[in-house]
């Protein structure tokens, strides 16, 4: 590093981060110091990639020898998993990835650390998941990862709310398979008075004008409310939850808990092995 700027030369490798939107993405800010401290000549750079651009963008970066991999965020996690040559067991079960490593032969290998990051990011709040009644809004890539992790935390019930009934049904079946009992169910509306934990795993609050399907007045001080959409900005859901006195967690908590794992995978370490720790 010279004068605060990364020393980039012809041997440097790029870890692209695909998202739509992408302005809120914190991965480069968090992961580049880890690469630098470990002496890895890798630089994470965000790219605004829309769903219509995804296929062409993927093909371009997969073809470039100085690409270390691709970080994947909303809304590309499921689409990216379908393009990978191999998947880790968790990524395969969920059908989504958030980190893709490009090997020297051009093959693309996907992993998913969102679920691990979410539960670890809760800190002391993680203990509240055992036996909890949970409402999870969003059964896309991140939502599925969180649902898979919740299955391992011993939640009593998981209500899944998603505009796509097939996505909700897939996620419910995945959770039930993991727990060995009927734990999850797709719901058409949020029965907030019977839940202890609310999780937003959608872009609501950072993209578009959709409103979160839980009225602020329904939030209680005894709740745990997590909104992974909240990274660089506070979402209306988190603002209302904090005003209600609820325990809260945001996307930065989740990302910070998994960033060393993402760095390790991008740098060529086995999935689940952190870089620099």
Task: Describe this protein's structure.
The chain is an alpha/beta fold. It folds into two domains: 13-113 and 256-266, Leucine Dehydrogenase, chain A, domain 1 (Rossmann fold, 3-Layer(aba) Sandwich); 115-253, Rossmann fold (3-Layer(aba) Sandwich). The chain is 34% helix and 20% strand. It has nine helices and twelve strands. The chain has helices at 27-37, 51-62, 77-83, 89-94, 114-121, 141-151, 165-179, 236-243, 251-266, and strands at residues 13-19, 42-48, 67-72, 86-87, 99-102, 108-111, 133-137, 157-161, 184-186, 197-200, 224-227, 247-250. The strands form two sheets. The protein has a six-stranded mixed beta sheet, sandwiched between helices. Strands 9-8-7-10-11-12 form a six-stranded parallel beta sheet, sandwiched between helices. Helix 5 (114-121) crosses helix 6 (141-151), helix 5 (114-121) crosses helix 9 (251-266) and helix 6 (141-151) packs parallel to helix 7 (165-179). The protein is globular. The chain starts with 12 loop residues before the first strand and ends in an 11-residue tail after the last helix. The mean pLDDT is 93.
